[in-house]
Specification:
Blueprint: H1 2-9, H2 13-16, H3 42-47, E1 55-57, E2 62-65, E3 69-70, E4 74-76, E5 81-84, E6 93-97, E7 99-102, E8 107-110, E9 121-125, E10 142-145, E11 150-154, E12 161-163, E13 188-194, E14 201-207, H4 215-224, E15 231-237, H5 246-256, E16 270-275, E17 284-287, E18 299-306, E19 312-319, E20 334-335, E21 338-339, E22 343-345, E23 351-355, E24 378-382, E25 387-391, E26 393-396, E27 408-415, E28 427-429, E29 432-434, E30 441-447, E31 450-452, E32 455-460, E33 464-466, E34 475-477, E35 480-485, H6 496-501, H7 514-517, E36 522-526, E37 532-534, E38 537-539, E39 544-551, H8 566-569, E40 575-576, E41 579-581, E42 586-594, E43 610-611, E44 630-633, E45 636-638, E46 643-649, E47 652-655, E48 658-660, E49 664-670, E50 682-685, E51 688-690, E52 706-708, E53 714-716, E54 725-732, E55 735-738, E56 741-743, E57 753-758, E58 771-773, E59 776-777, H9 800-803, E60 806-809, E61 820-824, E62 836-838, E63 843-846, E64 850-858, E65 865-869, E66 884-885, E67 889-894, E68 901-907, E69 914-920, E70 925-934, E71 941-946, ...
Parallel strand pairs: 1-4, 2-5, 3-6, 4-7, 5-8, 6-9, 7-10, 8-11, 9-23, 10-24, 11-25, 23-26, 24-27, 25-28, 26-29, 27-30, 28-31, 29-32, 30-33, 31-34, 32-35, 33-36, 34-37, 35-38, 36-39, 37-40, 38-41, 39-42, 41-45, 42-46, 44-47, 45-48, 46-49, 47-50, 48-51, 49-54, 50-55, 51-56, 54-57, 55-58, ...
Antiparallel strand pairs: 12-22, 13-14, 13-15, 15-16, 16-17, 18-19, 20-21, 42-43, 52-53, 60-61, 61-63, 62-63, 64-66, 64-68, 65-67, 68-75, 69-74, 70-71, 70-75, 73-74
C-alpha cells in the first residue's frame, strides 16, 4: 500500500485520486485487498432489521472502492478517506447503505474539479421509515456531513438545460428525426373495452388517477357499466398511482384479476389484458419498475381471442417510458417581442444519489395525501464542515415529508464562502434533482452558497428554499425549476385539502383559510431579499414561480439573530434575466410574510402561516437611512394564470421586462399611501405588455382553461373565458409607468381585455400621484383603459377604490391630452363640465388640481358618512375615500350624531392648497379646534396652534391666513378652511416637517340628545358649476411627448385627488379594541365606511346662496 501511494505522487494530479489505494474496500491501509461480495437481494436487505454497528473508515485508512458494496451504515471519520475508483470501461459501482456519515476529518470523493468522474457511480440509500433509530442531527436514510467532513462529488458536466431554438409540435418536429406517432393513451389509466366475439371496441376512457382525485369515481362508474365477459385492455400512461385510492385498487384487482394493481407505484409501467369477471388464468399482466432514466423496459400484456366466425385476433396493451414524441406544443420562438422558448433539461448524470422506495405509501408517511412512498434519501450538511462541492450529480427519490430532510440541505452552516474561511467557496453545480419528495435545495441559516446550473423537477413543497429569513448573499445562477407540487411540511407548502386537514398546530378549533393561510408553494422561496437570482427559470408551480417572502423576525433556529423588521428593509440583491411562466397564482410575487408567533387564543393560526408584510428597502436595512430601490431587471413572465408579477411595498422598479398571456401582466401595489410608507413608490419602465399573443398553447395538461381568443382562434386562457384580462394593474399608489408598449388587448363578447386596469373590489384609497408617460398603444389594443362594471369578477364595483380609481396621463400618450387625469365616469367629486366622458372605458378625462383628505374619527367609531361637492350636492357619494377637487367646497354628513373627535389630514397637498369643509353637527355643539404637525415616525407633535370662532362664515373661509372656524347653528354646519402651509417633496404625501392636521373636538350639550331631521339630500339638483379648469384645447401631436421618464423628479404635477378615510367600524372580525390606562391614547385599526344619513339632517347644500352668507366668488377662482 505504501508503495502504491509513493508511485501515485509521481503521476499527474488527475491520476492522483484514482490511484489512492488498490484494495476494493478495507478497514485499514494494511488490511490487504479484496473484492466486496455482490449486494444481497434488495427486498431482503431492504426490509430486514439489523442492529449491526456501522462500518468505519477511520484514522490511517485511505480506501478506493473498486466494485459495488452494501453496508448497513458507513461512517468516515478521523482522517479516513473513501474514493470511488474511476474505470470508464469497467462496470458501474453502487454503494448501498442506510446512511453515510462523514465528519471529524473524514472524506468521501467521487472525481474532482479538475478530473471529473468518468465512470458510472451510484449511492443508494435504503430503509423504511420505521427501520432503526434516527441518528441525532441527521435522521434516517442520509448522506450527512458534520464538522470537519469533506464531500467532493464531481461527475461529468453536460449542458444542464437550455432553450429550444425551434418550435416542437405535438408528435415531433415537422422536419427532422422525430416522427409523428399515434398514441392510444396518456397520463393515468387508459382502458379499452372490446366485444370478445367480434373484436370491436365498445368503449374507451382515460382516467387521470395521478393528479385528479375525482377520477377514481369516474373510473368506478365506467366499469360498473361494463357487463362481465367483455375483453378489457388497460395500461398506464405516464403515471396513475398518486391519486389512485385503495378502494379503486381493490375493485380493479377483483374485476380484472390483477396481481399488481394494488401495489402499483409512482410511474411504474403496467399493462393488462383480460376478461371482465373472468378468472386469473384469463388475464395477461406485466409491470416494470420505474428507473427515472428516461427509458425503461415496456410492460406488455397480450392475449389471443377467437371471434364468432373463428377468426383469431390479438389484443395488446403496453406501458413504459421510452424515447418518444412530445404530447404538447413547445414554443421555440420569440413571439410578439417576448422570449417564450421552452426550457429543455437533462435529468441524467453519471453520478447518481437515490433513495430506494417501496411500491406504495405506508405507515405514518401522510398516506392520506400520497399514494406513493415519500420516505426518500437526503443529504444534510452542518456547520464547520471542511469542504463540500458537488457538480455533475443526479439526485432522485430524495427528500422526506419530514421537517429537515431534503434532497440537499445546508443546515445552520453560516458563512460558506470566503467570509466563513473557505478558500474554495461552497457550491452546487450542474445537479439534476428530480422526482423528489420534499424540496430541491434547502438553505437554512447559511450564507454565501452558489447554486448553479441545477435542475429541480417534479418535487413536493418549495423547491429552492430559504428557511428562516436570515439567509443572505446566496446566488442562484442559471437554475431551472419545473413542476413544483404541494407538500405537507409548512402551511405555505400545502394545498387546500392539506390545509384543512392538518390542524395539529393551530390553537383550539381554528379552521385554516386555505387561500390566505396556505396555498403558496413556490419554485423559488426567497425569505430574505439580499440574495441573487440571475438567469433562472421557474415554470409549472402549483402556486408561484419566484416568491420574495418576508419574516418580521427570524424564525426557527435563527430566532433572535436579527432585529425586528430587518428583512423587510434589507435591499434587494441582484435580480437579472429571470423567466417565470405557466404558474397558477403568479410568476413573480414580491410581498406577504409568514406568521412569526406561535398559535394562541389571540391569533390561533399555525406558526409560519402566510401573513402580511411589506417590502421597503433602505440602506443598511435602517428605515431612517435613504431608500435603496429594488431593481427587477429583465423579467419574462408569460402564461401565468393569475399574475405575471405582483409587487407590494415601496421603491421597486421593473425595467426591460416582458409580460404576455397572463391574467394580469403586472400589478404594482405601492405602499406610499397614507398612513403607510411616506415617500415610497413603484415603477415599471421600458417593458412590453401583450394580452393574447400568437402562442396559442395546447389543450390538455394542467391548464383546463381553453376557449376562443379575440380573433376566434382556440387557445389557452388565464382563469376562464370571462376573466377580465389586464396588462398593467394599478393598486394604491403612487405607481408610475414610462416608455412601455402594449399589444393585443382586445375585448370579446365573453370578457374585457384592457391595457390598463385597476385592482377589483378595492376597499382602499388610491393615490392621485399614479401616472403614466411615453406609452405606445399599438393598433391591436382595442381597450386602452377600463374601470370595470358591476357583474362577474367586479362584484358591485362599488368599493372606495373602485369608485376612486385614478391616474395622471402626464404627456397625453394614453388619452391624447397632456396633463390629464383619468377617473371613473360617475365620480362627481372629480367631474366638472370640462371633463370628456369615454363610455367604453367607463371613465372620463379631466383636467384639474387634486389632493387627498384623510379623516380620523372617534366617539363613536361605528358611524357611516357621505360626502358631496357643494356644486354637485345632488350627487353625493357613499365612499370610504372620496375624491375631492382642490379649492372647492365639500359637505360631510353622518348617519348619526357626529363623532366627538375628528382629525382632518390634508394629504398630497402642496403648500397653499386648500379646501372648504362643512361638517354636520347637532345644533347645540361646543367646539375646540387646534392645528398641529404630526411626525409619524417619531410620534412627536409640534407647531400646535388654536383655531378661534369667527363672527361669520365669510371671515372663516376667506383664506387670509387666520385660523378661524364658524358654526352656523341654524343649519348645523361647522365651516373650516383647510390649507397646507408646508412644502411637500417628490412622492411624499406629507411635508418633511410632518403631517399637518386639524383636530376638532365637539361636545354636545346635553350629551346624548339626537335630533331627527328630514331627508338630508333632496332630489333636486344644485346649480351647474362653471368649469374650474378648461378642458385641453388640443390633443398631443405625437405618441412621445417632451416629459420625463416617470422618475421621482419628474412627477411634481400641480394637483391630486382627495381621499376621505374613516377610522373605526363596529366589531369587524379583524379589529382589536385596546383598553389603555387613563393617560394613554386609545388605539384601533384604520377602516373606511359606507355612507348614509339617518338621525338628523343638515341642509343638503351648506354653501347654497339661499343662506344668509355665501362664499365669495374670489374664493372659488383656482390658483394658477
Amino acid at each position: 500500500s505504501s508503495r502504491t501511494r509513493s508511485r501515485s505522487r509521481s503521476r499527474s494530479r488527475c491520476r492522483q485520486r484514482r490511484g489512492t489505494h488498490r484494495g476494493a474496500a478495507s478497514g485499514s491501509a494494511a488490511a490487504g485487498r479484496y473484492r466486496a461480495p455482490p449486494p444481497p437481494p434488495r427486498p431482503a436487505a431492504h426490509r430486514r432489521r439489523c442492529r449491526c454497528p456501522p462500518a468505519v473508515v477511520g484514522r490511517g485508512a485511505a480506501l478506493r472502492l473498486e466494485s459495488s458494496a452494501t453496508f448497513h451504515s458507513l461512517v468516515i471519520r478521523d482522517g479516513g478517506k473513501l474514493v470511488f475508483a474511476d474505470r470508464p470501461r469497467g462496470p458501474p459501482i453502487t454503494l448501498r447503505a442506510r446512511y453515510i456519515l462523514i465528519q471529524d476529518g473524514g472524506e468521501l470523493h467521487i472525481g474532482s474539479e479538475r478530473c471529473p468522474y468518468g465512470s458510472r457511480a451510484t449511492i443508494s440509500l435504503y430503509g423504511r421509515a420505521a427501520d432503526g433509530a434516527a441518528v441525532a442531527g441527521f435522521g434516517q436514510k442520509f448522506v450527512g456531513v458534520g464538522g470537519g467532513g469533506v464531500l467532493e462529488l464531481h461527475g461529468r458536466r453536460p449542458r444542464s438545460w437550455s432553450l429550444l431554438d425551434k418550435t416542437l409540435h405535438p408528435g415531433g418536429l415537422r422536419h427532422g428525426r422525430y416522427t409523428s406517432e399515434k398514441r392510444w393513451g396518456s397520463r393515468g389509466l387508459n382502458l379499452r373495452i372490446l366485444d370478445a366475439g367480434t373484436g370491436r371496441v365498445l368503449a374507451a376512457g382515460r382516467f387521470d388517477t395521478h393528479l385528479r382525485a375525482g377520477e377514481c369515481r369516474r373510473l368506478l362508474a365506467f366499469l360498473a357499466l361494463q357487463p362481465p365477459g367483455r375483453v378489457v385492455a388497460a395500461a398506464v400512461g405516464d403515471s396513475a398511482a398518486r391519486s389512485l385510492t385503495l378502494e379503486t385498487r381493490l375493485l380493479l384487482r377483483d374485476r380484472l384479476r390483477s396481481e399488481h394493481i394494488a401495489r402499483l407505484g409512482y410511474r411504474q409501467p403496467w399493462a393488462l389484458v383480460g376478461i371482465l369477471g373472468g378468472d386469473a388464468l384469463s388475464t395477461a399482466e406485466d409491470k416494470r419498475e420505474y428507473h427515472g432514466s428516461g427509458t425503461t423496459g415496456l410492460a406488455v400484456a397480450q392475449r389471443e381471442f377467437l371471434t364468432y366466425d373463428g377468426t383469431r385476433f390479438t389484443v395488446t396493451a403496453f406501458s413504459g417510458w421510452i424515447k418518444g414524441s412530445p404530447l404538447y406544443l413547445h414554443i421555440g420562438e420569440v413571439i410578439d417581442g417576448i422570449d417564450m422558448r421552452a426550457e429543455v433539461g437533462l435529468l441524467t448524470r453519471n453520478i447518481l444519489i437515490q433513495g430506494e422506495m417501496e411500491d406504495s405509501c405506508y405507515g405514518q408517511n401522510q398516506c392520506q395525501f400520497f399514494s406513493f412512498d415519500t420516505f426518500g434519501g437526503h443529504i444534510k450538511i452542518l456547520r464547520n464542515f471542511s469542504s463540500v462541492h458537488m457538480s455533475g450529480v443526479e439526485l432522485k427519490n430524495m427528500g422526506q415529508q419530514i421537517l429537515g430532510s431534503y434532497p440537499v440541505h445546508f443546515h445552520m452552516a453560516e458563512d460558506v464562502d470566503e467570509r466563513g474561511g473557505y478558500d474554495r467557496p461552497t457550491y452546487l453545480d450542474n445537479l439534476a434533482i428530480h422526482h423528489c419528495f420534499s424540496r430541491c435545495v434547502a438553505i437554512h441559516g447559511t450564507h454565501g452558497l452558489l447554486v448553479k446550473d441545477t435542475i429541480g423537477y417534479d418535487t413536493l413543497g418549495h423547491c429552492f428554499f430559504l428557511e428562516d429569513g436570515t439567509e443572505q448573499r446566496n446566488t442562484f445562477y442559471h437554475n431551472l425549476g419545473l413542476l413544483t407540487r404541494s407538500g405537507t411540511i409548512l402551511p405555505s407548502d400545502r394545498n387546500e385539502a392539506m390545509c384543512l386537514a392538518i390542524r395539529s398546530h393551530v390553537y383550539g378549533n381554528y379552521i385554516p383559510v386555505p387561500s390566505t393561510d396556505c396555498m403558496a408553494v413556490s419554485t423559488f422561496w426567497i425569505a430574505n431579499p439580499n440574495n441573487n437570482l440571475i438567469e433562472n427559470a421557474a415554470a409549472g408551480a402549483q402556486d408561484v414561480g419566484i416568491w420574495y417572502i418576508f419574516h418580521r423576525v427570524p424564525t426557527g433556529q435563527s430566532e433572535g439573530r436579527y432585529p425586528e423588521g430587518q428583512a423587510e428593509h434589507t435591499p434587494l440583491g441582484v435580480f437579472y434575466n429571470n423567466r417565470v411562466h405557466s404558474n397558477f397564482k403568479a410568476g413573480l410575487f414580491i410581498g406577504k410574510g409568514v406568521k412569526t408567533t406561535r398559535a394562541s387564543a389571540e391569533d390561533p393560526r399555525e406558526y409560519l402561516t402566510v401573513d402580511n408584510a411589506r417590502f421597503r428597502p433602505h440602506q443598511d436595512a435602517d428605515p431612517e437611512k435613504p431608500r435603496v430601490p429594488a431593481i427587477i431587471d429583465g423579467l419574462i413572465a408569460f402564461k401565468n394564470n393569475d399574475h405575471g408579477a405582483w409587487a407590494r411595498g415601496g421603491d421597486i422598479i421593473f425595467r426591460n421586462s416582458g409580460f404576455s398571456d397572463n391574467g394580469i401582466g403586472l400589478t404594482l401595489a405601492s405602499d406610499g399611501t397614507f398612513p403607510t410608507d411616506d415617500g415610497s413608490s413603484l415603477e415599471v419602465t421600458r417593458s412590453i405588455f401583450v394580452g393574447e399573443s400568437s402562442n396559442f398553447g395546447s389543450q390538455g395538461g394542467q391548464n383546463s382553461y381553453w376557449g376562443k381568443g379575440a380573433k376566434g382562434e382556440y387557445r389557452t386562457l388565464p382563469r376562464n373565458k370571462t376573466f377580465p384580462i389586464r396588462g398593467f394593474q394599478i393598486y394604491d399608489g403612487p405607481v408610475r409607468m414610462a416608455k412601455c408598449t402594449f399589444k393585443k388587448f382586445t375585448p370579446t363578447v365573453d370578457r374585457y381585455s384592457s391595457a390598463i386596469g385597476f385592482f377589483m373590489k378595492n376597499a382602499w384609497q388610491i393615490s392621485p400621484q399614479n401616472n403614466v408617460s411615453q406609452i405606445l398603444m399599438e393598433k391591436s389594443v382595442g381597450l386602452k383603459v377600463f374601470f370595470g362594471r358591476s357583474g362577474q369578477w367586479f362584484g358591485n364595483n362599488d368599493n372606495d377604490g373602485d369608485k376612486m380609481s385614478i391616474f395622471h396621463d402626464l404627456d397625453g400618450s394614453v388619452t391624447g391630452y397632456p396633463d390629464t387625469f383619468i377617473g371613473r365616469a360617475d365620480n362627481y367629486l372629480l367631474r366638472h363640465p370640462g371633463c370628456l366622458t369615454v363610455p367604453r372605458w367607463n371613465g372620463m378625462m379631466c383636467t384639474g388640481r387634486f389632493a387627498q383628505l384623510y379623516i380620523q374619527a372617534r366617539r363613536p367609531e361605528n358611524l357611516t358618512l357621505s360626502i358631496a361637492r357643494a356644486t354637485y350636492s345632488s350627487h353625493p357619494l357613499q365612499l370610504q375615500g372620496p375624491v375631492v377637487m382642490l379649492e372647492q367646497a365639500y359637505i360631510i354628513q353622518w348617519d348619526g350624531r357626529a363623532p366627538e373627535d375628528i382629525i382632518l389630514y390634508p394629504i398630497n397637498f402642496n403648500r397653499g392648497d386648500w379646501l372648504h369643509i362643512a361638517l354636520c353637527y347637532p345644533r347645540n355643539t361646543v367646539f375646540h379646534v387646534v392645528t398641529d404637525v404630526y411626525q409619524r415616525q417619531t410620534g412627536m407633535v409640534h407647531s400646535i396652534k388654536h383655531y378661534f370662532a369667527a363672527p361669520s362664515r365669510a371671515s372663516a373661509l376667506n383664506g387670509t391666513g387666520e385660523r378661524l372656524f364658524y358654526f352656523d347653528r341654524a343649519s348645523g354646519y361647522l365651516f373650516v378652511h383647510l390649507q397646507a402651509h408646508e412644502a411637500r417633496k417628490g412622492h411624499s404625501y406629507c411635508s418633511q416637517q410632518g403631517c399637518e392636521r386639524i383636530k376638532i373636538t365637539g361636545a354636545y350639550v346635553p350629551r346624548g340628545v339626537l335630533e331627527l331631521c328630514p331627508k338630508p339630500l333632496p332630489a333636486e339638483a344644485g346649480s351647474s358649476p362653471a368649469p374650474c379648469v378648461p378642458a385641453p384645447s388640443q390633443a398631443v401631436q405625437g405618441m412621445w411627448g417632451p416629459t420625463g421618464t416617470g422618475s421621482c423628479s419628474c412627477v411634481c404635477f400641480t394637483g391630486s385627488f382627495a381621499m376621505l378615510g374613516y377610522k373605526g367600524q363596529a366589531k369587524p372580525s379583524w379589529i382589536k379594541v385596546l383598553n389603555h390606562a387613563g393617560n394613554q391614547k386609545a388605539a384601533s385599526l384604520q377602516h373606511y365606511v359606507p355612507l348614509k344619513l339617518k338621525e338628523y339632517q343638515c341642509s343638503a347644500n351648506a354653501f347654497s346662496q339661499n343662506h344668509s352668507e355665501h362664499i365669495s366668488a374670489e374664493a372659488m377662482v383656482p390658483h394658477n
